[in-house]
Amino acid sequence: MALCSSYHATLLRSIVAHKSILSSTRRLPNELLAEIFTVVVRDEFYRRSNSGPMSEYPWVLTRVCRRWRAVAVGTHSLWSWVFLDLDVMPGVGGVVSRTKLFCERSGNSPLEIKIEQRREKPKRHDVFNVVLAHAERWQYLSLSLPGESVLAINSDMLGRLDALTTLRIRTAVGTRFEPIDSFTTAPNLTAVCLWTYNVTPPFPLPWKQLTCLSTTLASNKEALSILPQLSHIVELRLVFRDSAVGVLPPNSITLVCLRSLEMRQHGLNHVTSSSLLDCLTCPILEHLMTERTALVDTVLRFIARSGCSRTLNSFYFLLRSMSAEKVLALVHEMPCLSTLQIGDFQDGTASKSSCIVRALHSHWLTVRRNSRTSRLVVRLVDHAGWCLPVYDVGVDADAFSTAKNDGLSIEISAWPKSFTSVVDTKFQ
């Protein structure tokens, strides 16, 4: 019986081990398997940040079986995403060899390169010479570096960047960054994310062909040297480090293609009466975000001047001590809203909150017939941090329930611990 039991257990283990032969994955065509591999590697590339070198993908796909290895090695796009974290990489020789292998296996596919380094190095890493040799195939370039000495490249080394469409550069605070002239001649560069400091505009970039721009600026006045050149901009995100404004010419800049505008004031600086919105006209704007960069009256003037009240469907506003009257004034000027968030709602008491719920519900019933959306989400956040959602304390719960049944969802909550993360999740 002991021998039979042992033989039986061996047979069971053999059955389990060979069940993989019957896996439906084995019946997938090579082309479909390659598509699945591509999705996995692409998501891993964009998701990775502040992590080790790309040792998991696509290398792990080559170690499953002979067929997977053949498909992975033969799919050029799998090797076109090159992620280099210069802080945690092993010996230089291994890094250079592996990067060369990526570039060779990618064939003629456009390259997407991400290079990160947080600790200052005395000289440029040797791996830069490998990626620079394929600069004509760069399609996406993301650099997160501590200083100019790390990326000591010039226009002669880069040449023409004909394939480059997206550029992301982030440097540490206090770092001196020298812009590179080669980016100005990139014919297909349309998306730029420039988070740098100690750089004085105008930057050497092809501003007129950009459709997406995200950058840091010293002040509103500094933005005036860039905005007139953005004739084809669709998405614009500006973060100001200083509230100094200077004299701004009113109604001087029209951005006819702009659909998304986000402006933030770094820190808790006082909001001045003069805002960059006073200079802008955006006739087809769909999303507007202003965080400590404009007063309510400024926003209302901007909407009226631009004539975008029927196109705006998403609005985020942060300003200290927003009253219920101001909230209603903003809502009335944007009848096609589907998402609204007010960053500092001071009337967080139960009685006042119930009043604004009823007022918003009445307004929503009026505009819903002519609105392009059948649902409106409103989030009011109290900066004081002591108020609770009205429906949590049991005050006028029927008003919330009735509004929700009519397609109006209202939330009144305390200020979150990490407000920026909430904004990025909801509105980024």
Describe this structure in words.
- With about 425 residues, the protein is an alpha/beta fold.
- Among the domains are: about 30-200, no CATH class; about 315-428, no CATH class.
- The chain has helices at about 1-20, 30-45, 65-75, 90-105, 125-130, 155-160, 220-225, 295-305, 325-330, 350-365, 390-395, 395-405, 420-425, and strands at about 80-85, 110-115, 140-145, 165-170, 190-195, 210-215, 235-240, 255, 260-265, 280, 285-290, 315-320, 340, 375-380, 410-415.
- Helix 9 packs parallel to helix 10.
- The longest helix is centred in the first third of the chain and has 18 residues, at about 30-45.
- The chain is globular.
Brief overview:
31% of the residues lie in helices and 19% in strands. With 428 residues, it is an alpha/beta fold.
User: Total number of β-strand segments?
Assistant: 15
Quickly give the structural class: alpha/beta
Note the main sheet.
Answer: 13 strands, parallel
Radius of gyration: 27 Å
Global shape: globular
Mean pLDDT: 78
Beta-strand percentage? 15-25%
Strand order of the largest sheet: 1-2-3-4-5-6-7-9-11-12-13-14-15
Distance between the termini: 67 Å
Low-confidence stretches: 50-54, 386-395, 417-428
* Helical amount: 25-40%
The H/E string reads HHHEHEHEHEEEHEEEEEHEHEHEHHEH
Helix segment count? 13
Organism: Roridomyces roridus
Protein name: F-box domain-containing protein
